[in-house]
């Protein structure tokens, strides 16, 4: 079996682990081992922040995948007004001297990908 060394635990954490171990009738090492085994066996890999958000606002998903974003873009093509506003914004964006990389429009990117996929399917 592997051995693990944990450095730089605060005195408060060590005291809390000792109290918990005593309450459960185990050594501190056994208490830590049990806690780590429960943590490793848990398939829910959410962070403490996600846990708190779930408690306060109900369980949900706190992210959007790239595929979902691309699907929304594909389902909502730009209007002429959208294009005009985007061009104005892009002109302002590109006028900034401190940006090194040019902006890549997500609608144009999605359209290019669709065209490339269509060309590959025809081959």
Automatic annotation (TrEMBL):
Pfam families: FitA-like_RHH
Classification via InterPro entries: Arc_rbn_hlx_hlx, FitA-like_RHH, Ribbon_hlx_hlx
Region named Disordered: 98-123
Name of this protein: Antitoxin FitA-like ribbon-helix-helix domain-containing protein
Organism annotation: Microbacterium esteraromaticum
Gene Ontology biological-process annotations: regulation of DNA-templated transcription
Organism domain of life: Bacteria
Residue ranges constituting the Antitoxin FitA-like ribbon-helix-helix domain according to the UniProt record: 2-38
């Amino acid at each position: 079996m592997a051995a693990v060394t944990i450095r730089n635990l605060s005195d408060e954490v060590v005291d809390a682990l000792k109290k918990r171990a005593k309450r459960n009738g185990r050594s501190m090492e056994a208490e830590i081992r049990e806690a780590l085994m429960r943590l490793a066996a848990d398939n829910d890999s959410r962070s403490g922040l996600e846990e708190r958000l779930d408690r306060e606002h109900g369980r949900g998903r706190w992210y959007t995948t790239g595929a979902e974003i691309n699907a929304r873009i594909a389902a909502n093509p730009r209007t002429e007004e959208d294009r005009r506003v985007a061009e104005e914004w892009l002109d302002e964006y590109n006028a900034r001297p401190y940006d090194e990389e040019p902006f890549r429009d997500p609608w144009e990117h999605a359209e290019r990908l669709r065209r490339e996929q269509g060309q590959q399917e025809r081959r």
